[in-house]
Amino acid sequence: MATGGQDLTDGGNIGVGMSSCCLSGKVKEGKPTGIEKTIAGLNTYVAEPENGSKEKSIVFLVDIFGWTFPNVRLLADSYAKAGFTAYIPDVHQNDSLPIEFLQDVEPPLPVRESQSVVQKTAATAKVGATLGPWLLNHREAVSKPVIDGFIREVRKTPGTDKVGVIGFCWGGRYAILAAHATDPAVAVDAAYACHPSLVAIPGDFEPVVKPLSLALGDKDSLLGEKEVQQIQELLQSKRDEGLQSEVKVYEDQVHGFALRGDWSSEKDKKAMDEAEKQGIEWFKRFLA
């Protein structure tokens, strides 16, 4: 178990939980350019490419801050500019955590490293009180059917050929689960998970059969060096059996970096940009 984590997975051997890192980060400036629709009964942000093609579609599975968080919408806009139709469904069904929590619990890495034990203990307690009930309400038995139902609806959308899924933090685990063998009606063609939380090792990774890309930070308190090595070894063994996968570890990056990094830091902005490029290149390859 990663330090400060809480095992709230539904199965597997090692449950890597969620800590105060999930509540850290920055809100990005900019105005999203997509539209809002109702799809599969869920409020959904949709960003379309210039030609309006739905041939290559990507479902964004959000972190705990939900589908209205500006950062994820702006990222979906970037994917649309790259030629994908991007969907951000409200899979929390109007129960995401408020953005105000973003800076309440954990500051960026340099400040975090200077915190006292007392400060860190207080942060962990606050996270437990905030996240515990929320995670129970949005456990796998509740959330996966909602996500599957949305993918099913996207699959049925006229003009749709290939479907990918990208997930962040809480949603990162569901991106991995979407890469399992499943009913073709809810199957995806490729998946990309950025700093996933609540993952079970090896339970969530052994059933993966679809191309899977991972972006991990080497300062992620949810996935320590030991867990990252286990994931790398698991996916390497599956690559030996023919599965397409990759694991990229980003130096000095904390949990949430690909979506909520500090773009005023040259190093953090570079990591965010590279993680965006990683996903776009992955989907260009496997949704072609």
Question: Which fold name fills CATH's third level, the topology?
Answer: Rossmann fold
Structural domain count: 1
Helix content: 25-40%
| Adjacency order of strands in the biggest sheet | 2-3-5-4-6-7-9-10
Largest sheet: 8 strands, mixed
Fraction in beta strands? 15-25%
Q: For this structure, what is the CATH homologous superfamily?
A: Alpha/Beta hydrolase fold, catalytic domain
Number of strands: 10
Overall body shape = globular
Instruction: Using the coordinates above, name the CATH class.
Output: Alpha Beta
Uncertain residue ranges: 1-24
> Helical segment tally?
8
Structural class: alpha/beta
Mean pLDDT score, rounded?
86
Using the 3D structure, state the CATH architecture.
3-Layer(aba) Sandwich
- Give me the Rg, rounded: 17 Å
| SSE pattern, N- to C-terminal | EEEEHEHHHEHEEEHEHH
Overview of this structure, please?
By secondary structure, the protein is of the alpha/beta class. It has helices spanning 70-81, 109-113, 117-137, 140-156, 170-178, 225-240, 257-260, 266-286; strands at 14-15, 35-39, 42-47, 56-61, 85-89, 162-168, 190-194, 200-201, 212-217, 245-250. The protein has a single domain (14-286), classed as Alpha/Beta hydrolase fold, catalytic domain (Rossmann fold), CATH 3.40.50.1820. The chain has an 8-stranded mixed β-sheet with strand order 2-3-5-4-6-7-9-10, sandwiched between helices. The longest helix has 21 residues, at 117-137. The chain starts with 13 loop residues before the first strand and ends with a helix.
